[in-house]
Write a structure and sequence with these properties.
With 136 residues, the chain is an all-alpha fold. It is built from 4 helices and 2 strands.
Amino acid sequence: MPAGLSEGRPAAADRATWQNPRIFTTLLLVFLAGGATGAVSMKFGLHQFLHKSSAPTSKEGVLQKFRTDLDLTPAQTEKISLILDDYRHYYQSVQDQEDDIRATGKMRILQELNPAQRDKFQKLMGEIPPQLAPKP
């Protein structure tokens, strides 16, 4: 019988490296540990750090970015500042109207319900995503 063969099977040393149980187990544990480390780090803030927006969030930030990137003149900067103010007021007005519409819808629904149903309705409103739920 040739060396290293026993009943038609190769000896452990002749098997492919990835088929060795110790190597396979080690690779599996390394893979699982890496996945767990990545999941934990993303859960505790790395996601926000990696995907933070570089866009300015304030009117002054937007105006400064426009001023430098577009090389605005002082007159243009002043006019754009007024436009941004108008837009902010318009946007706030639209949000206020949405809030009123939601509140009106909620009140109309509540008028149709009996007291037990109203309690259940209030609980259901807590389960609905905030963008869909009527605001008080």
